[in-house]
């Protein structure tokens, strides 16, 4: 870990603990910063705060004192999930205090270079796929970021021989200043998280920070099929690596209906790739390009693409029961992700959808609703989904109280050959703490229902 002199004796406020805040506070303390932690959870229920206090960190729990910013802090490090509307964040902005997420800290302390992956959809699949490619090529990759491993904790132990393959959300990127990945990837860019960012422009700007500090020594891999990203790329200083699904090109990476090409040469037949769905082709092209740029071999890439079946909670195959296939796509937290999932299943689909109400449009789903044989709705958006499904001509619509009920209703509407797909198109936080917990609830319910009916 690099000793960052600019943080020595700096007065830093860490807002929000969880995994990222706890790790950031601990590392800042090790670097010689004067750290104060503020978390809403009461101290007696907060083992992270208790551990930090034992280390000598100042801890304020159970409330966010409005006058806390009067104590002369020079830097705020916040948990990515805390909105900028938070009273302390607003106060810090008014005082001109820099606001970081722990991604910035990870970059400053890391002895290893970064590959950064972001996008509205496909981040997790691209990150995981790239990690497998580099790992099988013995490139000593480490995986970090929004995928579930705190980046600063990974960076703390990284060596110059490693490379940190990092999934990055807009929440994380918004709080960066000097972060500069050697390879940056944007898989795609759609409207999302406006409730957090306030405007589409702020969301897009946060995503695009992934490449803002890159130089001519770096690489920017982007979706050239999106005019917005192509226009942004034209302003970047990095070496541009566009990918396209619209046919073979002689430069960079591309795909047509039959093959994937690298610099115009055939790399692999699409029919041999295990990971299905048109949306996953974007992820495959981005990961493949990054692996090749990092020195990965074509042989290893082909081996991974012919064996990698996907990421848990992302179009994850669960089981085949009485001619019905169950898929867990709980990570689909917006309509575009669910549209991509429906596009990947051309047959009859029993769709389970619903969740946190963010007032997002469902219109992206309309062209594929003719594939939905029945819709099972749940959560805050249940009634709105039902109304939308009826408007699209879906006759069978049922409302479920919980995941067990949803799966039981889905099975009752299904027949041999149908796909039963959890792809909520909404965040989980109205009923579940995370999309992972929601997906696990679906898997458990599927196993219970199928075992009971065998």
UniProtKB/TrEMBL annotation:
TM ranges: none
Coiled-coil parts of chain: none
InterPro entries assigned to the protein according to its UniProt record, in alphabetical order: Mur-like_cat_sf, Mur_ligase_C, Mur_ligase_C_dom_sf, Mur_ligase_cen, MurD
Pathway linked to the protein: Cell wall biogenesis; peptidoglycan biosynthesis
Single GO term (MF): UDP-N-acetylmuramoylalanine-D-glutamate ligase activity
Pfam families, per database record: Mur_ligase_C, Mur_ligase_M, MurD-like_N
Keyword Nucleus: no
Chief location category: cytoplasm
Keyword Methyltransferase attached: no
Localization per Swiss-Prot or TrEMBL: Cytoplasm
Binding site for ATP: 119-125
Start and end residues of each Mur ligase C-terminal domain: 313-426
The enzyme's E.C. designation: 6.3.2.9
Catalytically driven reaction(s): UDP-N-acetyl-alpha-D-muramoyl-L-alanine + D-glutamate + ATP = UDP-N-acetyl-alpha-D-muramoyl-L-alanyl-D-glutamate + ADP + phosphate + H(+)
Ranges of residues in domain Mur ligase central: 117-290
Family, as annotated: Belongs to the MurCDEF family.
Function: Cell wall formation. Catalyzes the addition of glutamate to the nucleotide precursor UDP-N-acetylmuramoyl-L-alanine (UMA).
Protein's recorded name: UDP-N-acetylmuramoylalanine--D-glutamate ligase
Organism of this sequence: Planococcus chinensis
Gene: murD
């Amino acid at each position: 870990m690099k000793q960052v002199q600019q943080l020595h004796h700096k007065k830093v406020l860490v807002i929000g603990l969880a995994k990222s805040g706890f790790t950031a506070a601990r590392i800042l303390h090790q670097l010689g910063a004067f750290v104060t932690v503020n978390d809403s959870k009461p101290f007696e229920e907060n083992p992270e705060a208790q551990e930090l206090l034992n280390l000598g960190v100042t801890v304020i729990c159970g409330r966010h004192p409005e006058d806390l910013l009067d104590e002369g802090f020079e830097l705020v490090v916040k948990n990515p999930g805390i909105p900028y509307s938070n009273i302390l964040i607003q106060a810090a902005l008014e005082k001109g205090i820099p606001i970081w997420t722990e991604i910035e800290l990870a970059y400053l302390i890391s002895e290893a270079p970064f590959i950064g992956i972001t996008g509205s959809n496909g981040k997790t699949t691209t990150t995981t796929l790239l990690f497998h490619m580099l790992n099988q090529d013995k490139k000593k990759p480490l995986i970090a970021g929004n995928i579930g491993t705190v980046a600063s904790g990974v960076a703390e132990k990284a060596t110059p021989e490693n490379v940190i393959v990092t999934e990055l959300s807009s929440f994380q990127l918004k709080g960066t200043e000097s972060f500069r990945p050697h390879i940056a990837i944007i898989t795609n860019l759609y409207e999302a998280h406006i409730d957090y960012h306030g405007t589409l422009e702020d969301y897009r700007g946060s995503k695009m920070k992934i490449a803002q500090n890159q130089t001519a020594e770096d690489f920017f891999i982007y979706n050239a099929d999106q005019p917005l990203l192509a226009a942004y790329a034209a302003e970047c200083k990095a070496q541009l690596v566009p990918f396209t699904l619209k046919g073979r090109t002689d430069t960079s990476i591309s795909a047509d209906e039959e093959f994937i090409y690298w610099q115009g040469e055939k790399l692999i037949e699409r029919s041999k790739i295990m990971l299905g769905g048109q949306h996953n082709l974007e992820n495959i092209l981005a990961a493949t390009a990054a692996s090749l740029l990092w020195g990965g071999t074509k042989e290893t890439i082909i081996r991974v693409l012919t064996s990698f079946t996907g990421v848990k909670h992302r179009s994850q195959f669960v089981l085949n029961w009485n001619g019905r296939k169950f898929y867990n796509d709980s990570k689909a937290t917006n309509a575009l992700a669910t549209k991509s999932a429906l596009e990947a299943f051309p047959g009859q689909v029993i769709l389970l959808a619903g969740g946190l109400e963010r007032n997002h449009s469902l219109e992206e789903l309309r062209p594929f609703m003719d594939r939905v044989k029945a819709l099972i709705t749940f959560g805050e958006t249940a009634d709105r989904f039902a109304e939308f499904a009826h408007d699209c001509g879906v006759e069978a619509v049922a409302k479920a109280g919980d995941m067990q009920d949803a799966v039981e209703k889905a099975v009752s509407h299904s027949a041999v050959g149908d796909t039963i797909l959890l792809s909520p198109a909404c965040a989980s936080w109205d009923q579940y703490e995370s999309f992972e917990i929601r997906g696990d609830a679906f898997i458990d319910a599927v196993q219970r229902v199928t075992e009971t009916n065998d």
